[in-house]
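Troubleshooting: if your tokenizer reports a length mismatch, compare against these two reference records.
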Amino acid sequence: MNKTPILLGSLISRISPNLTRYASSSNASSTGRKVAVLGASGGIGQPLSLLLKLSPLISDLSLYDIQHTKGVGADLSHIETRAKVKAHVGKEELGNALKGMDLVVIPAGVPRKPGMTRDDLFNTNATIVADLVSACAKNCPRAIIAIIANPVNSTVVIAAEILKAHNVYDEKKVIGVTTLDVVRAATFIAEAKGLDPTKVNVPVIGGHSGNTIIPLLSQVSPPVSFSQQELESLSTRIQNAGTEVVEAKAGAGSATLSMAHAGARFSFSVLEALNGKQGVVECGYIATHDGEFSHFATPLLFGRNGVEKSMGMGKLSDFENKLMEKGKKELNGNIQSGLNFAKQYLAKSK
């Protein structure tokens, strides 16, 4: 008798739980959370939604975009995991997409093309983020908002100003997702030093573009030593890694798959902390009251209400202090651009 069907069934039953466990470390008995992805049909939104669908942390996955969302939702809804998928398309369905959400992830916006900087995306993506966050203020004012849409150094500032205007701003719940910088740093350092990338941790502070990205190679875990040449080459590669992908795709898009992974990793950490897991730390870009920046990325401790506290930046090396100094003007300029845009947007909205 042919035993292939039995063996195949056994194999699938072993693989499927492993995929789900990979998607997040919590088991299915955890409190199910409601998550919305705004921009779910895009290059980041689709793979991000797939990874979120695999997680037992999520009971309801709400997908929103201005087009093609129904197809993405139908496709994902066939996957045999816990999360129930609902798809919403067009501005008239945005409110329903957001009601009752615990976490809203915003990858919406246009991608970079060769020769473009994140700042070139500013006007288009700033308006998209402002509109989406305005809807969040009205429909899920207590949700955590994770912003992927670039330029993050500015869009997070815009989101904060929009929420303030609606009197629902909570700085613990508005975070720019800089996890991809951390992921890239771990990968590149592991490659250079022959380490397991899953065991490497690198704090990355500052912002999320070019010179504002400041990898703290002096604080790598496990401890690793670098020559001056390695410090310079690795730091430069981490800062310009997005451009590396844009150029390699030659006009076909920007970093979508790695960003989806980073966005999912960040989302799982937030959700695990909401469910009571202790000691959850991820880097993120938030409002700050220390130093010379109104917004800044550091390692953050998450809890049941979002960000509990910044873990700070520790003691910087001379090389890292020079990187800080080099990125200071650009970061403050990005922040000011966000403030200026928000002021104009809110004035038009009155």
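Reference record two:
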Amino acid sequence: MAALLNTVSSIRISNTRATPRFLPPVSLSLHRRRFVVRAAETDANEAVKSQAPDKAPDKAPAGNGSSFNQLLGIKGAAKETNKWKIRLQLTKPVTWPPLVWGVVCGAAASGAVQLLQNILFLGARLIIRGNFHWNLEDVAKSIVCMMMSGPCLTGYTQTLNDWYDREIDAINEPYRPIPSGAISENEVITQIWVLLLGGLGLAGLLDVWAGHNFPIVFYLALGGSLLSYIYSAPPLKLKQNGWIGNFALGASYISLPWWAGQALFGTLTPDIIVLTLLYSIAGLGIAIVNDFKSIEGDRALGLQSLPVAFGAETAKWICVGAIDITQLSVAGYLLGAGKPYYALALVGLIIPQVIFQFQYFLKDPVKYDVKYQNNE
């Protein structure tokens, strides 16, 4: 929702001036592989426009890509002409699972969660009891909440981000749907609005369904949607600052769906809010992973992502440090709180993560970013 989760200045490109509005239109034209943008954007883009190559490098020929990658919305996608597949690609389904899992965690935390150790070889069993019950109604509520957090609001966030990153993508990934002209500006804007309104509509439905006097799920969805907008859009464009932008992204992927799941079935408490925000520091590290593939475009357009600000070598250690140190700190907190089995389970999950970091990510964060995330 991630998630979950800017007045704009006018510039003149090709002697055309656009009037700023919430979602500025863009005219994309392709002629002999030349990319021309006419948009309402920040003045900074005008200053660096001359730095962008007139002909974007063909770094990953879409014709040789994978159809599976295309559906997931990740690097190495095949060229597609089916508009519905292109629309799905813009929503990046590969980014939905963390939000779906966050809803599950929030639903579990809404009641008493007890970890029972089985002395046989069956391992640990997670027993969920309290406000969430394994009946048709509660399962249906969970699925609707997952649809709101994943396909709708995460899809909205990803499509919106691609819209405002079209100039960067023209440099880094010119084969993507928007800079390649595979989908029109009106179709992209329509998709952004449909996903946003659909997600907010489902949030309102969940509040009514749960009998909330205060529409907390709706306001969480609205807040996450606003966070997504100021993350991607000028003039705030939080992603221009590597620290603030990546923490905002991490919080939207970890905290917001958890809060929604917990609020749906129980009460969202201050301690849970604080703990999930602290754990979002790990989300900051996860968000940095996505910045390595955009170093060239970020540098050309003046975005201070951490790989640009510190260099790829330093940034990759900041990335894994933010992830691992945060998670180990939480394991230490659980141990100190008298929950050694929880702490042990978390350490057991951290160990293979560290192995994959050394095996893939720390070797080459640009080449192995997708493989690392898939394995992790």
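Descriptive notes for reference record two:
- The two ends are 20 Å apart (CA to CA).
- Confidence is low (pLDDT under 50) at residues 1-58, 112-130.
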